[in-house]
Protein: Glycerol phosphate lipoteichoic acid synthase 1
Organism: Fructilactobacillus sanfranciscensis
Amino acid sequence: KVSDLKGVQKFINQNQVSPNVQYFGKEKGKNVFIIHLESFQQFLIDYKVDGKEVTPNINKFYHNQHTIAFDDFYHQVAQGKTSDAEMMLENSLYGLPQGSAMVSYGAQNTYQAAPSILDEEAGYTSAAFHGDVPTFWNRNNAYKSWGYDYFFSDSYYKTKPQYNIGYGMKDKIFFKQAIPYIQQLPQPFYAKLITLTNHYPYELDKRNTSFPATKTGDNTVDPYVQTAHYLDQSFGEFEAYLQKSGLAKNSVVVLYGDHYGISNNHRPAIAKLLGKKSVNKYDLAQFQKVPFMINGGNLDGHIDHTYGGEIDVLPTLLHLLGIKNNHMIQFGHDLLSNQNQQIVPFRNGDFVSKQYTKVGGTIYDTATGQEIHPTSSQKKTINNIQKYVDDSLENSDKVVYGDLLRFHKLKNYKDVNKKTIDYNKKAT
Ligand code: GP9
Ligand code: MN
């Protein structure tokens, strides 16, 4: 009901952070590429197996002079996995405590998502690319609600039996076949490319395997670096295209990992990968870090240690593009803002913050990993953080369960008219 929206708006307004003048509008008007690195974790960055970098291309991009790379950035997905990541990244709304918000509420709810905000505020065309069937995670319906103009799913790509593996099209072939469609997009555009090959159980054909498996002895973990290496090569080829075509000059390129690849059920193997004798709950929380990096010609590249998560990507991106979001209902905050609280809620109520990490009822010092027994004053701070985490999740759920954005009118902003959107491939 509309009264619920009032409570949500109050919470949002109490937690606003203002843009950083050093970055606001720095990349205004640029095309945006969102590269979704499937199941790609932060520990892979600069990681070596037998002295060889697993992901040389992504590492180069991470250290590029125009890349801002966040190394204290976490996935915040629950059972919705990729769909939770997409929901958070493009709406700054959390997934649900169970199931997938995109599946259960993607079609019928009203959203004010990245594609429609960029269109309304700055005339962007938007396109999503994915080498899987359009119905997976209800994307074909959710993307219409989010205002995507185009959705190039599997039927748009020429396929042969050896082009597919695991969930769908191999990443190198997918990126290559996305290019002709990208070339036809009116600029400025917002293009999201979702990769697939680096997905459990990380299978890859011999011809495409050019990297040694790890030797943890856990055969669901050891091939992970091989498909991660293949994904890296695919990204390297796409990045080369962006450079050669000149698109890199007038585009912002965002890379992010959607969620973990290796689940917490493989603690002995995780310990071996990290060179530790064993891993505790703090180590496993740290293991949930995924990359988030933004490359843009006007950015002074650096590694940014701000604590954040997927919920924060949209506010960060909008501010870089010179679009204010303080009248929008978004639960994340601009990671480049000096006022960022640096609290990362997880869907189960756990959190990481600059000072404290709370996992499974245990409190750790975030910087040292030491378990702490909080003093009364520390308890006060921790309780305030917990209240913020609980309120964030509760208010976000209210928006999704109650479809509250249908009551939230933004000035000079027209809601998406889904009837004008059709993703079916036209017979040429
Ligand atoms: C399915 C692909 C994988 O299209 O995005 O989804 P996930 O299993 O990672 O949620
Ligand atoms: Mn995924």
User: Anything to note?
Assistant: The first helix runs from residue 2 to 14. The mean pLDDT is 97.
